[in-house]
Amino acid sequence: MNKVDVNDPQILESIKNLIATCGGSPESFDGGLITQLIQTGLKLMTEGHDTGQLKLMTRSLKEMRYAYRIFNKYKGSRRISIFGSARTPENHPDYLAAKEFSAGISKNGWMCITGAANGIMKAGLEGSEKDSSFGLSIRLPFEVPTNSVIEGDPKLISFRYFFTRKLMFMSHSDAVAVFPGGFGTLDELFEVLTLIQTGKTSIMPVVLVEGEGGIYWLQWNNYVHKHLLENGWISPEDQHLFYISTSVEDAVWHIQKFYRIYHSSRYVGDNLVLRLLRPLTTEQVELLNQKFYRLLEKGKIEMSNSLPEETDHLELPRLILRFTRRDFGLLRHMINQINEF
Fold it and tell me: Which fold, 75-258?
């Protein structure tokens, strides 16, 4: 097959006409992104992809489009993802703790995102308000894909692939709570920590919770310390990326405290901008410069108003720094310090 020149003027004109026919603006930035999507699709026809690869790419895009459409209807509230075993019995201390935790966090205005199966996922849905719960289901041969709590809910989203499901968990979460579980739970936990550690997702609280008398996270932390930290596979500061709670109330408090002063962050050019709910004093900023100078590529940490390039939360004060884009565990520690002021 001959390769298609997707930048051919005739093809581009056809794409623009199609976008306009469907109600879009082909000259806008969003119209340009849609143009690239269509061009990518056209390239697939002549690049030798087999039917299985085409199915995977098509289904993945369809899953993401549908999931984003559902989540976009519920903007404005903080959201927390709750992970844990689908096999936890309903009388187990972890199940009861997950139910209590989701009830506590939802009373503080949070929406809960869980899988849609039984165990910890069902507990997370039972504790939260029905109007503030999302269920992300996946088809597996040995588990119930949808529990009785979320079945029929318009916020139930079904997935074929784990990677698209994980993307939805992370791209819509402001915090993560993890209860004891098996391979899948640990996979989700380590992926969250990896994404935060490498700067591939926003810094957020990751709290590890279990029922009264449990030692799961104590033993997990012993493994992390002995085999990862002592061997140099992680940095000492990476231990700030997660928090082992002492109780359900402690877990809820830790998440709320993370957003006591800190609001959110984004990069603007070469600068990392931390948006705050209130300004810091000169003395507090100087303390940050003294304690966290390792985070700086150059210059100092400084208070500022919103930058000209920014478009949202313009009313909030900012901390601005030329971040090295390393040591995200240390950056997490600095956010803890900010919230202590």
Answer: Rossmann fold (3.40.50)
